Amino acid sequence: MSVFESTVQINQPVEPVYNFLADMNNHGRLMPDNIINWQSNAEEASFEIQNITKLSLKISSRVPNFEITIIPAEKPPFDMELKWKLEADGNTTQATFIITASLSMMMKMLASSQLQKLTENETQRLTEVFS
User: What is the mean pLDDT of residues 1-26?
Assistant: First the structure.
């Protein structure tokens, strides 16, 4: 399993950060520019990574103000799990976005840098939403 993660501090209490992330409609605002055809509801989202693949994701579990787990809604090119972990510290929140993926050696060479960029992009955009 390959693990990619990025952590940021957000100058907001944990509850509004959790509420934002608990709704898949909001995740479109965190995506990089090469994501097209975003469609979502509170539980699921589908989109295309331009010139690469289509993906459908759904929230599989929520632990209020602590964790949100997202899994593929349809068979992806490789097994993966996306997880947001939140840690409250007074009026600030530490948000960690983790992608765990089962990548073959070839996929690891092709996708690792893109998956790491994705984690960093999403956490950076999350800070922008709350700034």
Answer: 97
- The whole domain housing 51 covers 2-129
Helix H, strand E, coil C: the string for the chain is: CEEEEEEEEECCCHHHHHHHHCCHHHHHHHCCCCEEEEEECCCEEEEEECCCEEEEEEEEEEECCCEEEEEECCCCCCCEEEEEEEEEECCEEEEEEEEEECCCHHHHHHHHHHHHHHHHHHHHHHHHHCC
50: domain CATH number is 3.30.530.20
Number of domains observed in the structure of the chain:
1
Global pTM reads 0.92
**First vs last C-alpha separation in the chain:** 34
